[in-house]
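Problem statement: downstream parser choked on a complex file, so we are re-checking the raw output for the S-adenosylmethionine run. The parser issue turned out to be on our end (a line-ending mismatch), but while we're here, posting the original submission so the record is complete.
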Amino acid sequence: MFKSVTDFLIYAFLGPSTFAREQSADNKPPSPARGNKAYERGEDVEAQLYRKILNPQGKTQYGNMGYWTDGVETLDAAGEALARLLGQAGELKPGVRALDVGCGYGDEVIFWAKEFKPDHILAIDINPISVEAGQEWARALGLSERLEFRAGSAVALDLEPASVNQVLSLESPHTFLTRDAFLREAFRVLVPGGGLAMTDLLPLPGRVVHHFAFPPENAYSRDVLAQKLADAGFVQIEVKSIRQHVIKPYHRYLAKLPANRGLLGRIRMFQRQRVAAKLDYVLVTARKPN
Ligand SMILES: C[S@@+](CC[C@H](N)C(=O)[O-])C[C@H]1O[C@@H](n2cnc3c(N)ncnc32)[C@H](O)[C@@H]1O
């Protein structure tokens, strides 16, 4: 994933939730042939960094900012709370066949399987290393019949039309090239009456954010997103800002990390908070008409 020292520094300073995976315009999984040394060596650099810098005491590898409510004090708990919120919004329950797009290392998928017991979750990510980690984890827990992890692209889903009941995406669509293309794909693979649920990062209405977390194509606000969902064919569209429980508390958490203490750390946090003040974070639900 890290093709240069600059990539590494961006990640180390700003974290995985704000790191836009470098990807080609065709959204194909990153390929060792493109000279990615870490993949060539088979190293799980992202996970190692995540553990060491962002969640040094943690047990999970959630790559999201988390949902922080009273009593939530760790990134593990916040990541799980966000996954729970999305699992509920995505109506996961026995009988459901779901698709998770941008599944990361699989934490949310394993959590949903245990918490909501859907019949099946197909989990897709562009990063083959994280997909493999998820699949191994599911196997170790004896869940591989219900959980399938595949490397693949959000904008070219290798699925038949009308093949899943629910499509979920946890803090990932802002990184897809493009988010609109993903919305069209989600609509295509949903059964009539099926639901889309996602959480996502975007600029606040009226604010312009030049941020590497999202490519310029995805840097539009929640009102535009609602229109794009309608353009893709969705109905019963709800786009709700939950930034109070995500952006601010996540940054408060970051400020306390050892890496962000001292003069340099404070300068870094000041810069991050200036950008964060313009960021929105939404929970989206929508339905494919019957
Ligand atoms: C911010 S992380 C969120 C990961 C996970 N959902 C979580 O909350 O821990 C975004 C994820 O989207 C994946 N991703 C980026 N572009 C993608 C694409 N075009 N298709 C599929 N996955 C993609 C990344 O590899 C990364 O795992």
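For whoever reads this later: The chain has one domain: 5-287.
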